[in-house]
Amino acid sequence: MLMPKKNRVAIYEYLFKEGVMVAKKDTHLPKHADVDVPNLHVLKALQSLKSRGYVKEQFAWRHYYWYLTNEGIQYLRDYLNLPAEIVPATLRRAPTRPEASRPRGKMDEGGRRPGGMDSQRDAYRRGPGVDKAGEAGAGATQAFEFRGGFGRGRGGAPPM
Asked: Which tens digits make up the pLDDT trace of 103-126?
């Protein structure tokens, strides 16, 4: 499809920066949500990249999802004249947080945190002498009786 080169470059720059792109399947949408170009130009530019194997396409609920492949990264790097040090956001590592910097609560000698939460948990869990499995199920009580009249068939006498 014929489109201005500035639109194609804007689409490719956004795709390279993020590594992924999403577009609603609406050819009449005047502007794309992330790039300031018509949505039709985004659909057709990425359709072209898909046919050359530079992006993988996923479609769900009237939205297209495109993911750059390794060949697509190299193609866009050559097309946009970018150095090899610049990589899409999907390939960058997230900054790790040091575990020691997170504040932790104080614990007493028993390995429990002070406060009312542990006592509530202990009351919920009950002591070790209680048989929870014996209290549950169909034969838990001796006064078991079958009451008919529920579901299919009444269980009573046939109608006359």
From this structure: 666 666 666 666 656 666 666 666
